[in-house]
Amino acid sequence: MTTQSATAETLRNPSDAVDQILDQWRKERPDLDLSAMGVFGRLGQLSLILTPALEGVFAQHGLRRGEFDVLAALRRSGPPYTLIPSALAKTLMLSRAGMTNRLDRLEADGLVERRLDPTDRRSLHVALTGRGHTVVDAAVTDHVANESRLLSALTPDERETLDHALRTLLRAIE
Amino acid sequence: MTTQSATAETLRNPSDAVDQILDQWRKERPDLDLSAMGVFGRLGQLSLILTPALEGVFAQHGLRRGEFDVLAALRRSGPPYTLIPSALAKTLMLSRAGMTNRLDRLEADGLVERRLDPTDRRSLHVALTGRGHTVVDAAVTDHVANESRLLSALTPDERETLDHALRTLLRAIE
DNA sequence: CTCGAATAGTACGACAGCTAACTATCAGCC
DNA sequence: GGCTGATAGTTAGCTGTCGTACTATTCGAG
User: Fold this and answer.
1) Whole-number Å distance between alpha carbons of B171 and B174
2) Residue B119 CA distance to nucleotide D25 C1' (Å)
3) Does residue A71 surpass a pLDDT of 70?
4) Is the overall model pTM greater than 0.90, yes or no?
């Protein structure tokens, strides 16, 4: 199943879809250094699988993930639950044009409102409405429960190791 | 900086952007169980940061990431470097309509060609052209080098731990 | 052998993101 | 005080993906 270059890792654990891809590459391009591809392959797979797994919960509250992200950023910023669009775009790693678009949708749904900034007429404050506050509080409650459910198959030790490893990687690349 | 609920983990390591988000939530919604949010937050951050970090290499070969993925799937499948669109869509987790679109672009660029399947007139074979073969071989060489570079700040032990943890998570959720 | 169900690929319309260009406003330097 | 450059937000056009509907073909139960 695995090639002759199987590591101790692949012997301890069953081969997964990423391992099969690595085996294909080893056979076709034995000259390549594939030492890093496993990590990136698994990260990509996880992203593809987790996206719909998380999206479903947001949809139950009438939200897309991007919209939830905006509401959540406002909610966790604390009273008065306002941020300026540029700050939102920066923390959510979105273009400002994209943020204009999201805010248009959220405002049309009555979840946020734009208020003029009295001290800077270029800018404005995006504020959670009462309804936005209610919706995001309900959504985030379900969201964290969903996240916990997705990790429920891992032991506390495995979670700790995973979190530590992800933290290490994040610190290394940013 | 961190709240009273800081764990041993946060004491051993400097606080990052995800920790700050967790601290905000702890303060605003102390009722929530945030034990899983750190892992998902870091996975999301990694995805956002790594996407452009990988895209740059593909762009040097005139490719988008999605296009590279198709060429790579064909290349690593081995001779005769042929797959049917449905199989490509499934392994790349893309809708068949999206695959039609990608193949249109790749065919217009002369990197793949569609061949009729003599045994099933509903279907066809997508084949790497000579140029496609050359382009993807060059691109994947640079790509794996780029991946190795991105992980170069990690020790071999840290890489092994990370890969093992990701493998565990992938097995748990899929 | 035939007819309904399943499968393969595509066309079409909707949608959310991006870049670039634009308007308006602020900040700093002389 | 009045330019110059930076910043805030929006608009317009492009792109890649998706869901849905459609045609053509194959499979399978009877």
Assistant:
1) 6
2) 11
3) yes
4) no
